[in-house]
Amino acid sequence: MNESKRVEITWPSLGITVTAELDQRNSALAQCLWDALPYQSLQGHALVAGYHLYHVAPVHSLLHTPAQYRVDRRTVPDGTIFCSRLQHLGIKYGELTEPMTATPVGQVVPDDLDALIQAGRDVWDSVYTTKQPVIAEVRRAGEAGGHQLPRLPIGDPQLNELVKEVHAETERIWLDPPRELLDLHAGRIPSGAGSYETVLTTLLFVNGETRPLGYSCYGGLVRAALDGMPMPWLRQMTRQLAHTPAEFLGYCGLDTLWDFTQRLLDGLERLDSHQDFIAVMAHMALYCNCLGGWNLHLFPWQAGEHLHREATPA
């Protein structure tokens, strides 16, 4: 790819569009993003690291595509765009405090940095206060927008049917909050999860289990398969990593996730090729990452408004 390729990131509900140039720092990652355009996604905001926007990108290859160039996010210019193995497209728009290495793929053009800052503030308000979802659209500059979720083929008919349903459910909740999470956040929890009838405690634990299930379990299994881990070990690692958190999340109200997980575990012995294994785990990763994005958006962060970090002594 050449350095002239430009993308537009727009937030229609905010009336803001910024243009970014993709570059050669991580050309393979940038190409993954370019090939997947256009798409739409729920826009999120960092809750710990600082002034940083990110959303889940529907790009399976981000889970494993190698990066040639890494940076400390704190040290790069505002407007830097990153793609990560968490299936995120991230944009720095101000100070960051987390010393995390990241993989840059481009830069918002200087004339659009003020608009980017305004988008960051508006998205923070959406995530922290109003809970009105903000949808981002990423497209090739000058081209039409649109949206579709990729579907990977599976050789085994039974597991192909599972992936078909996982894909359909992911597509259904991609831009609309899952009913199960809406019920959970409203305190409608059939199992009675939540000691002394509390809800916030359950929400906290659901958030803490959902994110690593997508990021570490399923994303990690994709990378392990691509690194050549033998199939028997991959099956065993799947059983060890996926069952307990998914069962807990099912108890908390995420019945669809638990149903998918049980069917996956029941069919593991049918997976006899790395290609099929990677495809199944990639679809589970995207589904869990989508759930995680919605849970972060819906979570009542203002419950901690009375708690603020003390100023660092000079």
Automatic annotation (TrEMBL):
Which InterPro entries does the UniProt record give? Cucumopine_C
Record-annotated Cucumopine synthase C-terminal helical bundle domain positions? 160-298
The record's Gene3D superfamilies line, in alphabetical order, gives: 2.40.100.20
This protein's name:
Cucumopine synthase C-terminal helical bundle domain-containing protein
Phylogenetic lineage: Bacteria, Bacillati, Actinomycetota, Actinomycetes, Streptosporangiales
